[in-house]
């Protein structure tokens, strides 16, 4: 019997499991440049961290007055992103260790992401995490992206888990809000350190303020064990 019996763990993908935000920024920069927007900066990208790709390009259309349909923008961005993801996606070492620890204990695991199904599949295959994380939900498959709870609730449904027994790992404020709305516990690892004081992160049961540089697989595992004992 595992010390984590009864717990299911759901991972956000981008910025949580893998360091993919630089690729998303570059894909966004290339996409917007094709439509005449040549001043998209990293600081602009930071405002979209944690928001689904579909909602991001819809906002670009409004923000930059783009005439192209959202579907076209989405396809172009996904094409650029997949080209990058297939060659350079990288899992955070401590996150990989954490996934391996949990999988070794038989803990039910899932990925719930705002990325497209194709992007999620490419990243998990590239990083070799696909065999450990077979249950995957994309925001494209549910009615609403984060901060709505839909992707996390669907992940729990596919795992056959009660939302109250699920723990979410998230790097972005909309994701932390989504976990809270789903009635799930949350380990928050802010990707943008300056956002650690965002009110959404205050709802997390464990906040790793320093982000990935402070995250420890062993420490997170120990926290989960204490959570199970505390009920």
Any overview of this molecule?
By secondary structure, the protein is of the alpha/beta class. It is built from nine helices and six strands. A six-stranded parallel β-sheet has the order 3-2-1-4-5-6, sandwiched between helices. Helix 1 crosses helix 4 (70-88). The longest helix has 19 residues, at 70-88. It is globular. The mean pLDDT is 94. It holds the Pfam family Hydrolase. InterPro entries: HAD-like_sf, HAD-SF_hydro_IA, HAD_sf, PGP-like_dom2.
Structural class call reads alpha/beta
Mean pLDDT: 94
Indicate the overall shape: globular
User: Considering DSSP H and I runs of 4 or more, what fraction of the residues is helical?
Assistant: 40-55%
Question: What is the end-to-end distance?
Answer: 17 Å
Count of helical stretches = 9
Low-confidence stretches: none
SSE order, as H and E? EHHHHHEHEHEHEEH
The order of strands across the largest sheet is 3-2-1-4-5-6
Major β-sheet profile = 6 strands, parallel
Number of strands: 6
Strand fraction equals 5-15%
Rg value:
17 Å
Protein name: HAD family phosphatase
InterPro entries: HAD-like_sf (IPR036412), HAD-SF_hydro_IA (IPR006439), HAD_sf (IPR023214), PGP-like_dom2 (IPR023198)
